[in-house]
Structures are given as C-alpha cells and as structure tokens.
Amino acid sequence: MRNPLNKRLPRELKHDFGKYLVIFLFMVMMISLVSGFLVADNSVKHSYDEGFEKYNLEDGHFALDKEPDSSLINDIEDKTDSKLYDLRYFEEDEADSGATIRVYKDRTEVNLECVMEGEMPASDNEIALDRMYAQNAKIKVGDTIKLAGKELKVTGFVAVPDYSCLFENNSDMMFDSTNFSIAVMTDKGFEKVSSNHVKYNYAWKYNKEVSGDKAEKEASDDYLENLGDVIKEYDTELIMSGNTDIISVSDYLPRYTNKAVNFTGDDMGSDKATIMLFDYIVVVVIAFVFAVTTSNTISQEAGVIGTLRASGYKRGEIVRHYMVLPVAVTLVAAVAGNILGYTLLEKFFVNVYYNSYSLCTYTTLLNAEAFVDTTVVPIIIMFVVNLIVLDKKLRLSPLKFLRHELTNRKKKKLVKLSHKLPFMTRFRLRIMFQNIPNYLTLFLGILIAGALVVFSIMFEPLINDYADVVKKSQICEYQYVLKSQVETDISGAEKYCVTSLNTTDEKYMTDDIMVYGIEDNSRYVDMDIKDDEVLVSNGVMVKFGLKKGDTFKLKDPYSDNEYEFRIAGSYTYDAALAVFMTRKNFIDTFDKADDYFTGYFTDKKLTDIDDKYVASIVTYEDLIKVSNQMKVSMGEMMYILKYFGIIMFVLLMYLLSKQIIEKNAQSISMTKILGFKNGEIGGLYIAATSIMVVISLVVSVPIVNAMLKWAFSSYLYTMMTGYIPYMVRRSCFVEMVILGIVCYAVVAVLQLVKISKIPKTDALKNVE
C-alpha cells in the first residue's frame, strides 16, 4: 500500500512554493555557473594540450642575422640531430592602427594554422590575421589592411600553437593582443610585400622525443652548444675564403621557455582557484539555507507532526517524508543547472578564454569534477543537513509537538522595557527580542551574501589600483635587459644582475621569483643590507607569510641547485615577486665573473647600444599594458560574478526575511484582531526587520573584509601563481550596503503583501 503521506507532498509544495522556488533558483544559478566554468576550462585545456601534437608544435626556434645557404642548414640538422623548418617572417606596422603585424609564409609542416573563420589566403594580395587581434581591432573577413604600402585583403582568421598567447617578445611582462598580431600569406604574397624587416627564423624538432622541463633544458643547452659550433666552423671557412660577411645567431628560444606557448597553459586554470573559492562559499550558503528552511518547516508543521506521531507514524517515516521535497528540488535544480552549464554558461566561459588567448578550435568534454562539485556535493549537503536537523528536532515527544514546545530548554523571562518609551517603540523592541534567533540567522545570511557581492565587485577597481601601485613602485623609467654585456656611456645608467628561481614550498603553486643583484649605493633601489642578507618584495612577504629573519628557500628549475636566503626586510616593489641582494652577493651566489651584469637601470634611453643587443626594455607602457590586458581578459568574468552576487543577495534576503514573517504569523494575525491595519503592522514587523537589516549590513562590513582577506591569504594565494595584493576600495563596501538596502526594499514590499494575506483566524490556531 502506498504511503498516505505522499499525498501531502503536492499540497506542501504549493503551500511553500515561494521557498522552494527560491532554493531552486539558488541551486540552478550556482550549479550552472560552476559547471559551465569547469566544463569550459577542462575542454579548452584539453584542446590546448592536444594541439601540441595535432598542429606539430616546434621544440624551439632560432634566428640568424643573414639568410643561410642549404649547406649550413644541413650541417645544423646533422650536428644537432634535428629537423629544421624555414619560418622566416617580417614585421610591419599596420597603417591605420599602428599595430605590429608579424607575417609568416603559409605553414605546411610545423606550427600548423587552425582556420577559425573564413579561409586561408590564395592570392598574393591576401592575408589571414590572428583571430584574437582581429577581434580586438574589429577587423572582419573581407576588410582591407595596409602593410608596407600595400593593401591586403583579409580572407580569414587563424590561430597557431606557437602563439596561443600574443607575446611580441619573450621578455615582455605581459602579452598584448591589441597592438600585436601574427599573420600568414602565400609564398608569392610574402615575397611581393618586399619588407626590409625580414628575420630568418628557423623552427626545429628533435629527431628523438624529449619531455620534461629538466630534460628539455639539457637538450636545449646541448642544441645551443652544437648550433654555436656549426656557426663558428661555417664562419671560419668564410673568413679563410676571404669572405668577411659572417653569420651569427640573433635569437634562440627553446619551447620550454617560450611564453607565447607556455603562458596560456600555465595561466589556464588559474581562474579556477577563484571560481572554486566562490563555489565553496556558495556551498556553505546552501547548507546554511537548508538548515534554516528545514527548521522553519518543522515549526510550521509542529501540530501536524504531533498528530502523525500520535497516530502511530514512526520518527523515521516522518524524517523521510520531510526530506523528499528538499532532495527532489535539489535534484531537479542540478539537472537544470547542468543543462544550462553545458550550453549557455559553457559557451560564455569559453568566450572568456577566447577573448584572452589565441586558441585553436575545441570540443566540449564531459567533466567528472564538475559533476561532483555541482551535483553530488549539493545533493549530499541537502540530504545530510536535513537529516541532522530533522532527526534532532523529531526526538521530541508527540505532546510537545502538539503544544508547539519545540525545545527542552525552559523559557526565559521577558526583558523589562521602560514604560517611558513610546508604545510602538516598545512593540518593535519586543519583536526584535522575540526574534533574536531569526535575526541572527538573517545576519549570517547577509554576511555571506555581502561577502559574495564584495568579492564579485572588487576586482575591477582592484585591477585599476594595482596598476597604480605598480607604476609608483617602478624602479626606473627604462629597465634594459641585454642579450650580451655591452657598455654604455649614458650618464645615470646603472648596471644590475637578474636571474629567475622557483619556489619550493609545496603549500603553494610553483612561482618564478626574480632575483636582482643591485649596485652598492644604488640611485634606483634604496636598500641597505649586508652581503649575506636579502630584501624581498612586499608581495613575497604577504603571499608566503614571511617576516624579517626568516629563511626563503628557492631552487633552479633546471638543475638540482637550491638556495637559501636570510630575509633582512621587505622592499616595496609590486611589479613582480622579487628578491634583492647586493651585486657582489649575486655574483658570489651564482658563481659569475666579477664584471658580470644583465642590464641597466636608467631614466634615459641608451642610444649608444645597438638594438640587436637589447632583449627588452621595461617602461611605464609595459606596466600599463599589464593592467589593460587584465581588463580585457577578466572583464566578462567579473561582470557575471557581480550580477550573480546581486541576485544571490536578493534571493537570500527574501528567503530569510520570509522565515521571520512566517514564524510570527500568529502574532500578526492577533494584531489584526486588535484593529491594526496592514500598513501599521508592516510598520511594526517590517520596520523592526529593516532596522536589523541595516545594522547587520553595517556590522558585516569589517567582518566581510576580514573574511575576504583570509580567503586571499589562506586559499587564493595557494592556488595561483604570481601575486596581486588584497585591496578593496571603501566604495565596494558602500555599494554592498546600498545594494543590501535596495534589495531589502524590494523584499519588504513582497513581505507587506504577504502580511496582508495572513488571515485573522491564524490567531485562533495552536492556542495552548
């Protein structure tokens, strides 16, 4: 025989439709957001990794300052045990935008193109551009661009695996998809442009596969040594034959150090830390809401539960009955959320990635992690929380349920209020005192929702403020990084040393730490330390929780060498995670020659150093490029988090304030019998709740600030590389408070309608 209790389920759903609708929407939003991101992240990352083999990605490339003959190419291949591919290119500025376009011939063997839109060029007046650049420059298929005085028709957009991230130079601090692009033309079209800026670039693939950073480092070192030997031998033969037009290597970049290839893979998934933190916060909110709603259901249904228990129903049967709707609603929400996640939201987050990186096509993949985090976990939380609350509450005797005595604790005496206070004030205070548990619940809801709102709106101003602090901490106007040691006569230029080491703390993801060797009495870096001590940047101190006197352990990523540095203090430098030591200490530590240096700090351009010796120049524009690209890359992500947080605020506010009205339905009914009108009752109950909402919003500000600061230091910093300081503008908290008040104003109107629908007969129910 079917359980007669099941007949109550449709009526219960109809009676509490508002509550279950809010929970349903709450769940659908969370599941769709997290599921969509995890599916997109997993699918795009798989496509990126697969592209190494699919598009035959190079193992590295080098450039020669002159065009080599076939005999030299053959000698290099034999000596280095590799296959070379001609990937020469020229660079020209696009006439209208001024952007630098790096043009290659059509690739047929290595670093193959993936056509994203349109088609490959077929005529010598046609060109295909990088999709990411074309999107930012608002160029469409069929448009015309002008390079080196020639008009070229854009036939399509492409992506190539060796430029998944548009770094113009490997030494650039940040990629730039608005002012730099790669492009491809036909062989004849390439020659027809007749650029004066051709670079004889050659990609190589090892004949024997090499994998792993350490193995690639060793293979690369051997390759460079062998390449140098071949070039040296070739030049010697030229000189002996009377030809002084020797050839030299102008650029050398193995794949494992190529930012244009690796940055995408390293950075892809770093947003995952943010989303997962967001997911965990929401899961806590869900557990909290379930506990509140379940407890409220028991309070409302106390008489029914007492009757059922007195009629012979077992506690387990009633527990199972009251768990059906919450679990069923969660299951339906999980299905709906995953459908949205795998469709609309997945496409949205894929677009976020494709708005940042020049990625090839991808295929949507099922993601077990997304299923667990967005479906299994919420259902388990719903089941366990309801089971715990119901099991504890239903241990009371049937008589206590019939009397609505839902606690074994003795009732506390009422707080005495002065008769000098106006009657309405005393009434409101009495409402507040009687509903302290409910208002505490509301406060916790506001606290969590407020954290979500601030978390979602803080990033845009954070990026702007971060750009400002980076600019202020800039060491000098021009930070030259040289390919080889070249002297300059420009006054004010100061030599420095730099290298990169990796962190060793397994609690954090591996970070690159820039280690600087600074001249004594430097005019650019103001530090006073001994030769056996170091200063670390403020970001290192904050991220890794270090203090003066601690030891900072680093290692060489491509050898077994490890280094320990004793921290003498911090130095304000927000542009990177860095260690500062004396130049003498640097030379001793890394076993360099006494005259060794890497580049120059200067406030003037070094006009007497040839560009071929300059690897990069770090300027103010580079710092601005970092913040600008972060805005382009993170903009859409932040918008969806912002609106998600606001909607979450409204839903939580509605659900929790609704509980207070429902718990006081009998008292509200009594006031109607006493002659109070709906507006006056609203002035009592809603006004009291409004006061508590405002107080909760104001009190939650410092707590939210502390919560987010803890989240940054204890979670986010351990799940991301690099460092961004925790900076929240006061305006973010002001916006949180204003949004909370506006949201409650909307909710208050809905609750006023609910008050008007409470019948006077409720006052006659459950009379003890």
List its traits.
768 residues; alpha+beta; 11-stranded mixed beta sheet; 6-stranded mixed barrel; 21 helices; 20 strands; 16% strand; elongated
Task: Outline the structure in words.
The protein is an alpha+beta fold. Strands 1, 2, 3, 4, 5, 6, 7, 8, 9, 10 and 11 form an 11-stranded mixed β-sheet that branches. The model has no long low-confidence stretch (mean pLDDT 84).
Question: Can you lay out the helices and strands and say which pair or pack?
Answer:
Layout: H1 8-15, H2 17-54, E1 60-64, H3 70-80, E2 82-86, E3 89-93, E4 100-105, E5 114-118, E6 126-130, H4 131-136, E7 144-147, E8 150-159, E9 180-185, H5 187-193, E10 198-206, H6 213-240, E11 249-254, H7 259-267, H8 270-300, H9 302-310, H10 315-354, H11 368-393, H12 398-402, H13 423-434, H14 436-457, H15 459-472, E12 478-482, E13 494-503, E14 512-518, E15 534-537, H16 538-543, E16 551-555, E17 562-571, E18 578-582, H17 583-589, E19 599-602, E20 614-618, H18 620-663, H19 665-673, H20 678-714, H21 730-757
Parallel strand pairs: 4-9, 6-8, 14-18, 15-17
Antiparallel strand pairs: 1-10, 1-11, 2-10, 3-4, 3-10, 5-8, 6-9, 7-8, 12-19, 12-20, 13-14, 13-16, 13-19, 15-18, 16-17
Helix pairs in contact: 2-8, 2-10, 2-11, 2-18, 3-6, 8-11, 8-14, 8-18, 10-11, 13-20, 14-18, 14-20, 14-21, 15-18, 18-21, 20-21
